[in-house]
Design brief:
The protein is 27% helix and 30% strand. It is of the alpha/beta class. It has 2 domains: 103 residues, Elongation Factor Tu (Ef-tu), domain 3 (Beta Barrel), CATH 2.40.30; 158 residues, Rossmann fold, CATH 3.40.50. The strands form 3 sheets. Strands 10-9-8-7-11-12-15 form a 7-stranded mixed β-sheet, sandwiched between helices. It has a 6-stranded antiparallel β-sheet with strand order 1-2-5-4-3-6. Strands 13-14 form a two-stranded antiparallel sheet. It is globular and about 55 Å long. Bound molecules: FE2/S2 (inorganic) cluster (FES).
Length: 286
């Protein structure tokens, strides 16, 4: 159970793995996440399920190396097993035929956006996807997104690939052209989601964001994942992870996310001093 069946690096510090998890694959809906532990003493980390295969009983996880556990997972290989996988957790995305849906994925946020985009496309929406990253090397899953989108626009902050600019500028361009957007779904770094909402608020576009607060149990018991939405305190794990972006207090979320930066850095530096495991090569030998 929870064996890694496939694994590849899809970008610098970004990995994709197919995991055997038949029960989760059977029950999962777009927008939901899992919490995993790599080993008995490991920390619990939440990851959104990027894809699933009902018939094969597998789920796909995509993660970026940011902390001890995600770095450790980067050193795991095909055949290794994860200790626990708990899920699916959180509320599924509300999917229906809205009309025109704009999906915006920034950096690693493209991975959780993928199943939502797929669901929106399958429901008959006209899907416009904006995929963004700081630079070309950090773009992920662009070909996957093209397959499930009616239009795909790619942007890099430094202009090294696609449109030169931020995803918000691309979104503003779509709005300026007079396109009627019925729903916008934005997933990525908190400042990006905040910036997207600043654009959609002015254009009166309903906007859903998927939040990534610090989580521990993922079932509504510890309160670590508190977020403020519309002046109310809600739990990211059981009330979300998706919320009305126009109502989210992004500044508070950013403050809470940085609370453990110091200890996280110390733990990561200690971990990095210990060489371990295999490192799957980047496609092309990079
Ligand atoms: S992670 Fe504990 S209440 Fe949400």
């Amino acid at each position: 159970m929870f064996e890694i069946l496939e694994k590849e690096r899809i970008g610098p510090g970004v990995h994709r793995a197919v995991i055997s998890a038949p029960e989760i694959a059977r029950a999962h809906h777009p927008g939901q996440f899992i919490i995993l532990r790599t080993h008995e003493d490991g920390e619990r980390i939440p990851l959104t399920v990027a894809d699933k295969d009902f018939d094969k009983g597998t789920i796909t996880l995509v993660w970026q190396e940011v902390g001890v556990t995600t770095y450790y997972m980067g050193t795991m290989c095909v055949g290794d097993k994860l200790q626990d996988l708990c899920g699916p957790l959180g509320k599924p995305t509300h999917i229906e035929k809205f009309g025109t849906v704009v999906g915006i994925g920034g950096g690693i946020g493209v991975a959780p956006l993928y199943p939502i985009t797929k669901g929106m496309h399958d429901a008959g929406n006209h899907v416009i996807t904006i995929v963004g990253a700081r630079t070309q090397g950090l773009l992920i899953m662009t070909e996957d997104m093209k397959k499930i989108s009616d239009e795909t626009l790619i942007a890099t902050d430094d202009g090294s690939f696609g449109i030169h600019g931020f995803v918000t500028q691309v979104l503003q361009g779509i709005i300026n052209k007079g396109t009627k957007i019925d729903l916008c779904v934005a997933i990525g770094p908190v400042p990006m989601m905040k910036a997207v909402v600043n654009v959609t608020r002015k254009a009166d576009v309903r906007t859903v964001v998927s939040l990534n607060p610090i989580m521990v149990d993922g079932t509504g018991m510890c309160g670590a994942c508190r977020v403020e939405v519309g002046g109310k305190t809600l739990f990211g794990c059981v009330d979300g992870p998706e919320f009305d972006g126009l109502e989210v207090d992004f500044d508070l979320l950013m403050k809470r996310l940085s609370m453990y930066k110091g200890p996280e850095l110390i733990a990561l530096n200690n971990f990095r001093e210990t060489p371990r495991g295999c490192q799957c090569a980047l496609p092309g030998g990079a």
